[in-house]
Amino acid sequence: MASLGPIMQILVPVADVDRAAAFYADVLELPLLFRFPGNAFFDAHGVRLYLARPTEDGYTGPATLYFRVESVSDTFDRLVARGASVRERPEITHRDADYDLWLAFVSDLDGNNIGLMREAPKGLERG
């Protein structure tokens, strides 16, 4: 039996696909792959994000997407300036012997969490 491969696609439940697609394109600046009625697909560096209004029971609730970024603090500031809602401001959440793990969270218009993360050199004031 073969092991699982890398993640290919993630469903992000949204209430309004057009509104969500605008957020993912304009605020997060992710490339749109394709659309068809009630669906939009974006490229998140090789992982396909599938925005849809779920119609089946059991497909509700917020998703959490974690993006690796070069600067958590700078990316967080840019997304908030474009209209993303603040969930958690940038902070060090783990201190490893070799790096500090910086995380911050914003949310999209449907309450899905957008995590920003970086394994940064130790001692930075802004991650």
Q: Which percent band covers the strand fraction?
A: 35-45%
Tally of structural domains: 1
Which fold name corresponds to the CATH topology?
Answer: 2,3-Dihydroxybiphenyl 1,2-Dioxygenase, domain 1
Output the CATH homologous superfamily: 2,3-Dihydroxybiphenyl 1,2-Dioxygenase, domain 1
Strands, total number: 8
Low-confidence stretches: none
Helix/strand-derived class?
alpha/beta
* Percent helix: 10-25%
CATH class reads: Alpha Beta
Q: Distance N terminus to C terminus?
A: 41 Å
The major pleated sheet works out as:
4 strands, mixed
Helix-strand string:
EHEEEEHEEE
Radius of gyration: 16 Å
Count of DSSP H/I helices = 2
What is the 3D shape?
globular
What's the CATH architecture? Roll
Structural features, described:
The protein is an alpha/beta fold and 127 residues long. It has one domain: 2,3-Dihydroxybiphenyl 1,2-Dioxygenase, domain 1 (Roll), CATH 3.10.180.10. It has helices at 17-26, 72-81; strands spanning 9-13, 32-36, 39-44, 47-52, 64-68, 85-95, 100-107, 113-120. The strands form two sheets. It has a four-stranded mixed beta sheet with strand order 1-4-3-2, with helices on one face. It has a four-stranded mixed beta sheet with strand order 5-8-7-6, covered by helices on one side. The radius of gyration is 16 Å and the shape is globular. The mean pLDDT is 89.
